[in-house]
Amino acid sequence: MVAVSLHALPGVPHIEPGDDLAGIVIDVVARNDVALDDGDVVVLAQKIVSKSEGRYADLSAVEPSLEAKRLAGICGKDPRLVELILSESVGVLRCVPGVIIVRHRLGLVLANAGIDQSNLPGNAAGGRALLLPLDPDASAHRLRRTLVERSGRRCGVAIIDSLGRAWRQGTTGICIGAAGFGALSDMRGSRDLYGRTLQSTIIGTGDELAAAASLVMGQANEGTPIVLVKGLALLLQNGNAQTLVRPLCEDLFQ
Amino acid sequence: MVAVSLHALPGVPHIEPGDDLAGIVIDVVARNDVALDDGDVVVLAQKIVSKSEGRYADLSAVEPSLEAKRLAGICGKDPRLVELILSESVGVLRCVPGVIIVRHRLGLVLANAGIDQSNLPGNAAGGRALLLPLDPDASAHRLRRTLVERSGRRCGVAIIDSLGRAWRQGTTGICIGAAGFGALSDMRGSRDLYGRTLQSTIIGTGDELAAAASLVMGQANEGTPIVLVKGLALLLQNGNAQTLVRPLCEDLFQ
């Protein structure tokens, strides 16, 4: 029987710029009643990766452009926040009251360029913002290298965020950084139960893993941004989350 | 520590129209080394629900309309299959070579109206097709009622399918039928770690659960269409998957 378990690890400290995330993962695993094994995947909320990389922006230091002011007038957001959003994006897909959806420089299509103002210390008034990591795949690979070196375990690493979606209500976890496992699983050419060749089954394994981890991570004040996933029979390989981004030339919903 | 486990249950028989799915769930749980407990969610692949409801169509009995022939000329699919797709849909969003994306009568936006030709007995040549259940929320509620009656356990039921997505490569599991748990979790008004009120966090719990289950279900010939999810602290309530469909008036990507 395939049995997978998802462990939300309590006791992760508040993360500061420069913090050693690999050390924190190893600590928090040791303090809970689990072990890091070969084939496990360590899933981290984007937020703690961004914090460790110091990806903060201070809205009071932002000078909004004319375009940011124009869009802010449409969506009703702070023009300085819109300026930040634009600086993280390669294009604006939709801007309507309450919503601005952009194509992030990483290829992600998402609201507010993934810029977050919740769960930041001293930010009850909303003056600070946290951007996505500069290169989440590189962050995942760095973190994995250190984890494997220090623990001796051949684990994978996933960095996840929660995004809204077209046509569906509610956010789901998606994978924005991956190392040590294939984020995209190509089943084309496999045979089904009755011998018919599968035509088009490519599975977004990294995103399914992210959604699963998000289910136990919690979004509000639970504070469990590290989840250990055990029992997945993922092939160890040099994966990355960029494979989950649909190429622009195949995008039917620009 | 929040720990959730996902158990893909081997030994599910081939499902025929009229089969008693609740009895099959209870059987297959008993034959494996798990128990059905209060708060568990039984996740079923859409395919076995459709099969038990006899949602087969025979392509040789389908007469394509002019519109189906026109669209088939664009996407390169069998005009009879396109006719079936149209009969299940309320609108066509995109039709390009190799792809037809519709809004299904259930509100789902998906390729081929969710009509599937793999894993059907005697279908190596592709003459048969399987449609989505008529009303997957109703199917989930019926199944849950029977399961609770016979097992005495207050479990939830989810019916899931694997769909492609805008902007992302690879399919992920989504929830098309739900009973006994809230498919959408509204966290608005909760406070974050530092006391800031969350503005917009509504979580697609049913879809995250579906993605998690899909991760262990397998897509090709593994044949494990029933997954037991244990340890989720979901509120037992009269949920349904229709809440996961974004209302047309809020759809920015028609």
Write the layout of secondary structure elements.
The structure is a homodimer of 254-residue chains.
Chain A: E1 2-8, H1 21-31, E2 41-45, H2 46-52, E3 56-58, H3 66-75, H4 79-87, E4 89-96, E5 99-104, E6 109-111, E7 128-130, H5 136-151, E8 156-163, E9 172-179, E10 185-186, E11 202-203, H6 205-217, E12 226-230
Parallel strand pairs in A: 2-8
Antiparallel strand pairs in A: 1-12, 2-12, 3-7, 4-5, 5-6, 8-9, 10-11
Could you explain the architecture of this structure?
The structure is a homodimer of 254-residue chains. With 254 residues, chain A is an alpha+beta fold. Chain A folds into two domains: 5-54 and 133-245, CofE-like (60s Ribosomal Protein L30, Chain: A, 2-Layer Sandwich); 56-130, CofE-like domain (CofE-like fold), CATH 3.90.1660. In chain A, 26% of the residues lie in helices and 24% in strands. Chain A contains six helices and twelve strands. Chain A has helices at residues 21-31, 46-52, 66-75, 79-87, 136-151, 205-217, and strands at residues 2-8, 41-45, 56-58, 89-96, 99-104, 109-111, 128-130, 156-163, 172-179, 185-186, 202-203, 226-230. A five-stranded mixed sheet of chain A has the order 1-12-2-8-9. The first copy, chain A, has a three-stranded antiparallel sheet with strand order 4-5-6. In chain A, helix 1 (21-31) crosses helix 5 and helix 3 (66-75) packs across helix 4. Chain A is globular. The N and C termini of chain A lie far apart (42 Å). The mean pLDDT of chain A is 91. Strand 1 of chain A pairs antiparallel with strand 1 (2-8) of chain B.
